[in-house]
Every structure is written in structure tokens, then in C-alpha cells.
Amino acid sequence: MKSTSLFFLNLSRLFFLFMVLIPSVRNADAQTIFQEDKNNFIALVEKSDETGSGKRANQHPFTLHEQDITAILSAIQVVKNRNTSTPLFTSEQVALLAAYLPQALRKATAQQDIVFALSKEKRYLAGLKTQTYYVAGSFFVADSKLNILIGEFDKVANKAYEMAYDPTSQGLVKYDFNFGQREQAKFSFNTPLSFSAHGLKLKAKNRFDWVVAPTQLTLEASVEEETLSPSNRENTPSKKNVAGSAPLPAEIDIVARFKRLDALKKANLISETEYAEKRRQLLNEL
């Protein structure tokens, strides 16, 4: 009896491991743009068969510049309470998306979305332990606007589950992510958002999981500055070098740029020589 129970226990473990290792149908035909492991990726997928606006073709391929993507993604905040908010994306996640999303949009067809899942680490217990969290969603361009669907925010990695089915930390466990939907899901992301850049808005008042952003932030910013009178221009706070982002003090701006540079180096998107040169340029601006 004991051996029979052990057999079925091992069989059930193998079954669950098998299910974990099989990617979802939607990802089976995905075209990978970036992948660090099973749960950190940016990919092209065929649009889901939804009703209403989901049937409309995307405006792909599309050209969107890195600095505009950085400005858009850095400007989205998740409201925690009346007095505090936190960025939807970390600076490292912004750097990765800004580096790979232009490539994905250029390659995408009118029937493809760009989906992503990216992790971040948070320390607790005075920094002695870390916990992994994921943000996931999708991008597409329609009506010359970048649409951002949020499926997951701070999805917690299940360390006990990973230890049970991947005890040697080989990266075998693959999580099932929600990439957001054009048709409102029953349990969609419903936490309020705020924006620190001009032009960003929610798709609808009753949806916090769908953000729409202009794709010509640089042009809009230059036109706005040209229309200012000399007196008003003197009283207007200076903007970041990244056009379209919110006005920030120079000290905060330079720190953010250092973080993005470090993220690019960590993701092996630039060489050691390029990193050293860019870092020297930033130091010269101090």
C-alpha cells in the first residue's frame, strides 16, 4: 500500500511538472524578441480571437523611438493610496522594453501583439531575503497610439512551488501569465493609475488595465515649447532631455539615466567599452 501511494505521488508530480513545462497555446507560436529565461521575455504573438475592437487590425509594422518609449513607460504610476504611488515598471524593465519594443513593432504584422513578462527583485527582512515579482501585459499600436494592456502587476513567484518541481534551480518552472485583454476580463487589473507625462490616458473610465499614449511625444513637446512666449518660457520648469517626459530636477534625471545604463549593461545590450564611455559622458554632465 505504501509503495502504491508513493508511485501515485511521484506520478502526480511528474504530471504537474509536465504541465508546467508545456507553454500555453498562445505562446507556442510566439516569435521571441528577447528572452532571458522562461519567465522573462518579449515576444510577438497572434492576436487573440476577441469580439468588438479586438477584431480590428493593428497598425503594424510601426516605428517608435526608444526615447519615446522610455518617456511613456516611465510616466505610468500605480497608485498605492492617497499619498503614495510606485512605478508600473522599474528602471531596468523600462530599459529592456525601450531597447526591444521598437524592434518588435517593426517586425510585427497587423495581426500580432507584443506580449511581455519581466521580473524584479524586492528585499525584505532587512535585506536578508529576496522575493521575485512579475509584471506582464501586451503592446500594440492602433490609430497612431501605443496601447498598453496590463495583465499582471507584482505577481509573486511561488518559491515553494519552484523548490518542489525545480529543486536544482534549472529554470524549469514556467508561470502562466495574463497578458491583458481588449475585452474587459472579470478579474482584470483594477488598481488606479496616475500619469506624469502629457498625453497619457486610460482607454475608458472603468478600466485601469488599458493605457493609451501618443507615439509622437517628441513632436508634441517641441510644438509646445515653441508656442511659449519668452516670459512664460522663463517661468516654465526645464524638461528632461528625453522629450515628452514629466519635468524633473536634473539630479533625479541623471540618476535615472545611470540606472537605465546599468540595466542595459546587465542585459548585455551594450559592451563594456560602450558602458564605460556612456558612464563617462554622464559623469561629465554632473
Average residue pLDDT: 78
Which structural class matches the secondary elements?
Answer: alpha+beta
Largest sheet: 7 strands, antiparallel
Please state the overall shape, judged from the principal axes of the Cα atoms: globular
Spans where pLDDT lies below 50 across 5 or more residues? 14-27, 218-249
What is the percent of helical residues? 25-40%
First-residue to last-residue Cα separation: 73 Å
Helix-strand topology string: HHEEHEEHEEEHEEEHHHH
* Number of helical regions: 9
As a whole number of angstroms, the C-alpha radius of gyration is: 21 Å
Strand arrangement across the biggest beta sheet? 1-2-5-6-7-10-9
Task: Please give the number of β-strands.
Answer: 10
The percentage of residues in β strands lies in 15-25%
What are the key terms here?
286 residues, alpha+beta, seven-stranded antiparallel beta sheet, three-stranded antiparallel beta sheet, 9 helices, signal, SHOCT domain-containing protein
